Each structure stands twice: as structure tokens, then as C-alpha cells.
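User: Some background: our group keeps a shared notebook of sequences we're curious about, and every so often someone picks one and asks for a predicted structure to add to the entry. Today it's my turn. The entry only has the sequence so far, pasted here. Could you supply the structure so I can complete it?
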Amino acid sequence: MVSISVVIPAKNEAGNIEKLLDGIDGALTADGQDYEVIVVDDGSDDETPAVVQARMTKRPRLRLIRHDRSGGQSAAVHSGVLAARGALVCTLDGDGQNPPSELPKLYAPLLAPGSDAIGLVAGQRVGRQDTLSKKLASRFANGLRGWALRDGTRDTGCGLKAFRRDAFLRLPFFNHMHRYLPALFARDGWQIAHVDVAHQARGAGRSNYNNLQRGFVGAIDLLGVMWLLRRRKRAVPGEAARPAGKE
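Assistant: Of course. Here's the predicted structure to add to the notebook entry:
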């Protein structure tokens, strides 16, 4: 039995993935959780799959899913959640910038008594270890998104998140949806919790995105999410609407 599934989208992270996996094992084992780790290789052309496969021979909690081509971070997360066995899913980036030691802070609100209304716990980075240009671009994008969507989240780009698997799979899937999870969960009536998390410098390799790419697709995505929010289902089925004999 698995209570928590950790999903890692990864592309060309051979220099980071093993240290990241060590950190996850250490954090969740110390916290006494029954967990699994799913690495979703998003079309890497380096040794990322080989590093994970070599580790799998000694780590039965570890699984590998491979995309035959790069589909992007949202596609990788979606594939991982579909394969997950746990009722709760945690995500973090494969570049090692999200400290695994922060994971217990993410899933704790979902395990607390009376937490049934919480669907998503979103990490919000403090002390970001990124270039100035990336931090400024992120600040602008988050400000614009927050103004347009009123999602109450200052940092949706943080890869550290925890959520209910069944609720995630009911969300509309589209490319880059991982940047809009607070708004999408709230659209379905879930409460959103926020946790401040640490951030660290990338250990090896380089980012798969640049500010221009993020800005162009972000503008189109934002309009699409605004459309989805305006057309959400507002009626909630009552007891009388349920088929007889069904709970």
C-alpha cells in the first residue's frame, strides 16, 4: 500500500536526479510515510533514464515512465499522476532546485484532521536562487496571473505541490496547466493551502525554458484559463438528484 506518490518530471537531469532521489528517500523515510517515487522522463537525450533504471534494481519504491518525445512539464506530471498508486501526490522539479526536505510540509495539511476540503497545497518559494532576469519575469507573470485569476497564490511556478490524485484527474488537462493549478482546483470548489518553501541553485545542467518562451505561451494560456473559470459548472447535485440506492 502507498499513501503518497512523489512525481518528478525530468528532462536531461542526469547530473541532478540521483541526489534528488536520495533526498526524497531520506525525507519521507524519516517522516514514516509509505510512499513511491515516479520519475517521468520527458524525452531526455542524456543518461537520465539509465541513472534511474540502475537505481531501480535496489529501490523497489522507484518507478520510471518514459515519453518517446518531449511533451513538456504538464504532460510529464499528468503521466505520473495517472500511474500513481497513492491517494495523495507530491510534485517537485527534476533539476534539484526544490529541496526534498520540504515535502513533509506540503502533504501535512492534507493529512491533518478536518482537511477534507483542501484539494491542493502550493509551495511558494522564498530566497529564490535564480538569475535576476528570471526572478523579474516570474514576478511580473505571477502579478498578472494573480490580477486576472484572483487565485490568491503569489508563486504558481513553484514545482513543490501536493494534491489529491482524484481531484487532479478531474481537472481539464492542457499544456502548461501546472502553472494554473490553484485556480483550477478552486474552480472545482476545493480550498487551497499555501506553504513557504526553500529554494536552491541548480546543481548541474541548464534550464529547459527561457523567459521569452514562458512569456509567449503564458499570455495565451492565461486567456484560456480565464475562459475555463467563467464557464465552470456552478450547480451542485443535491441528495434528491442521486439515483435511488446510491450513496
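Suggested note for the entry: The chain has eight helices and seven strands. Strands lie at 4-10, 35-42, 62-67, 88-91, 118-125, 161-164, 191-197.
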